[in-house]
Amino acid sequence: MATYVLNGPNLGRLGTRQPDVYGVTSYADLVDLCEQTGEQLGLAVTVRQTDAEHELLGWLHQAADEAAPVVLNPAAWSHYSYAVRDACAMLRAPLLEVHISNIHARESFRHHSVVSAVATGVICGLGVDGYRLALRYVADRLAVGDD
Ligand code: DQA
């Protein structure tokens, strides 16, 4: 079974996008990090990024059909997309919401995520390490047969 790492809008520009906020790790480096972490943990990790909401919805539907775990950084959609939240609510395996920055220490419109209430857990503010920690959680859950 696949474990999906799904990334929303503007995350493809990591490395050059506001490095003071998001760090200097490029999106390509993030893909490598997730794939290598998956290999170490025995997870078949598929990493994707899109700037098109309908594409993310399709990937979430696929994960729901496959009962596959998802690590999701919904990026700006976190804060207002009920469509992304509704798609997340259909998932049948753990959903880990990840934010690179600490959204609670930033502008007030970022303090609320409409996705968090349907996520298994949320990691924010730990930089790209948040993805590694989320994958570790998924591997531990699969190992104990929770999902
Ligand atoms: C983000 C935080 C969001 O507020 C922002 O819109 C992003 C990235 C993060 O990873 O810190 O695009 O999800």
UniProtKB/TrEMBL annotation:
Q: Which residues form a coiled coil?
A: none
GO BP annotations listed? amino acid biosynthetic process; aromatic amino acid family biosynthetic process; chorismate biosynthetic process; quinate catabolic process
Q: Which Pfam families match?
A: DHquinase_II
Q: Which InterPro entries does the entry link to?
A: DHquinase_II, DHquinase_II_CS, DHquinase_II_sf
Q: Which UniProt keywords apply?
A: Amino-acid biosynthesis, Aromatic amino acid biosynthesis, Lyase
Per the Swiss-Prot or TrEMBL record, the active site comprises: Y22, H99
State if Zinc-finger is listed as a keyword: no
Record-level Gene Ontology MF annotations: 3-dehydroquinate dehydratase activity
PANTHER family attached to this UniProt entry: CATABOLIC 3-DEHYDROQUINASE
Q: What does this protein do?
A: Catalyzes a trans-dehydration via an enolate intermediate.
Name of the protein described by the UniProt record: 3-dehydroquinate dehydratase
